[in-house]
Design goal:
single chain; alpha/beta; ten-stranded mixed beta sheet; four-stranded mixed beta sheet; 30% helix; globular; binds guanosine-5'-diphosphate; binds 6-O-phosphoryl inosine monophosphate; binds magnesium ion
């Protein structure tokens, strides 16, 4: 019995999809536990690139079962498009993908509400992905949501009631819209969904564990976007932290084994909100260009900066991380020196913990380390790591108190190096 969790420690896009795919052969099952099509998880292998949004990243390895848990919010139209594209590219899903009947449905009007609320916020807007995530989770919490299991009985009535309620709000916000096309595609998605195994995933997950099977939980977004612990209100609307795997799949906390925390060798953020180590200069632009830091789905420019160890320590604490995974090491290959933020200065005072509010007046305090000036992308074992790169890893491990188990040196599945670390 084993259930491990892999999650992002920064503001998302750390490279979760790639590593879940790499780790899948070691597990029987891969499960998503929160988020929805706001995610864009990229995988590259055999010269092909795939971007997954709602479907777990374990779908490409053999015949592994993949589960979409109750904590996920699902847009049937986007799901259909994603699943059909995968099937067309030679990756049959229908027998291998199980969907929780308790997962909540994103309605076309949720997407409209997302846009309307953002417009109403003006300059204070969150910069959401526009996929209806916030309004769907709002309906879930306020006990008004529609769930996947609802599509099996008397659905039209439930849908009409929810739609009418949403339309009242849209009217009060003077938001203009036309639902004709989106609603048609959405109902096609509902019919398509019925072809999948719609399951009580909490029973399935616990049965699999009792049978001695192993499960890898795939997080979406990142810890700094968590609804409770992220940079509120510039966050997503779900619990992205490790505890989200328990509520989003129905597993007890004492069943969780390893927690893989994944981070980039630097830091990025997309959308609005505070970002203490953000770089507005040429260095930031260079990182963006070298790291191709543009949204996997939206193409939005990602904001770039140096690694923030204050935020990372905080994320490791709330997630209970046991193993670290460092991504995109190769992006820093050309730098003479590399900076790491080890503390913040707030109102003239130096602090090394993550404060209540990082919105204003937080100045990062950096340590500068020598760069490795070597092409990491061709490396296949840690024996090849340059001295300066090892020194960077050792520095991070000392600061963070957790070993770096995996280092990623390029986007391809093969460009992944497992390190020997004492356990
Ligand atoms: P996710 O949302 O956490 O799965 O991450 P995204 O897919 O949104 O963004 C990560 C991006 O970095 C993708 O384009 C990956 O192909 C790419 N990537 C992942 N690991 C590496 C790496 O080690 N080096 C480089 N250069 N790119 C990487
Ligand atoms: P993956 O899983 C990066 C950000 C949005 C916005 C905020 C709220 O690919 O790492 P939402 O649509 O969720 O209400 O938007 O969260 N955001 C992400 N940023 N990666 C993601 O997912 C994200 N999902 C949401 O940009 O700032
Ligand atoms: Mg992403």
């Amino acid at each position: 019995m084993k259930i491990d969790v892999l999650l992002g420690l920064q503001w998302g896009d750390e490279g979760k999809g790639k590593v879940v795919d790499v780790l899948t052969p070691h597990y029987d099952v891969v499960a998503r536990f929160q988020g929805g099509p706001n995610a864009g998880h990229t995988l590259e292998f055999e010269g092909q690139k795939y971007v997954l949004r709602s479907i777990p990243s374990g779908i490409f390895q053999g015949d592994k079962v993949n589960i979409i848990g109750n904590g996920v919010v699902l847009d049937p139209a986007l799901f259909k498009a994603e699943a059909e594209a995968l099937e067309a590219s030679g990756h049959p899903l229908k027998e291998r993908l199980h969907i929780s009947k308790k997962a909540h449905l994103i309605l076309p009007t949720h997407r409209l509400l997302d846009a309307a609320y953002e417009a109403a916020k003006g300059d204070a807007k969150v910069g959401t992905t526009g996929k209806g995530i916030g309004p769907t989770y709002t309906d879930k919490i306020s006990r008004n949501g529609l769930r996947v299991g609802d599509i099996l009985h008397d659905f039209d009535k439930k849908y009409a009631q929810a739609k009418a309620r949403h339309e009242q709000i849209l009217k009060s916000l003077n938001f203009e819209y036309d639902l004709t096309d989106t609603e048609k595609a959405w109902f096609e998605g509902i019919e398509y969904l019925k072809q999948f195994h719609l399951v009580d995933s909490e029973h399935e997950v616990n049965r699999l564990l009792a049978e001695g099977k192993s499960i890898l939980c795939e997080g979406a977004q990142g810890t700094m976007l968590d609804i409770d612990f992220g940079s509120y209100p510039f966050v997503t609307s779900s619990n992205t932290v490790c505890a989200g795997a328990c509520t989003g799949l129905g597993v007890a906390p004492n069943k969780i084994g390893d927690v893989y925390g994944i981070f980039k060798a630097y830091c990025t953020r997309v959308g609005a909100g505070p970002f203490p180590t953000e770089l507005f200069d040429e260095t930031g632009k260079t990182i963006r260009d070298l790291g191709h830091e543009y949204g996997a789905v939206t193409g939005r420019e990602r904001r770039c900066g140096w690694i923030d160890l204050v935020a990372l320590k905080y994320a490791i604490m709330v997630d209970g991380v046991t193993k670290l995974i460092m991504m995109k090491s190769d992006v820093l290959d050309g730098f003479d020196t590399i900076k790491a933020c080890v503390a913040y200065r707030v109102n003239g005072e130096e602090i090394d913990y993550f404060p209540f509010d990082i919105a204003e007046g937080v100045e990062p305090i950096y340590v500068e380390l020598p760069g490795w000036k070597a092409d990491m992308t061709q490396m296949t074992s840690e024996d090849e790591f340059p001295e300066e790169f090892n020194a960077y890893l050792t520095f991070l491990e000392e600061q963070l108190g957790v070993p770096v188990k995996i280092v990623s040196v390029g986007p391809d599945r093969e460009q992944t190096i497992v390190r020997y670390v004492e356990e």
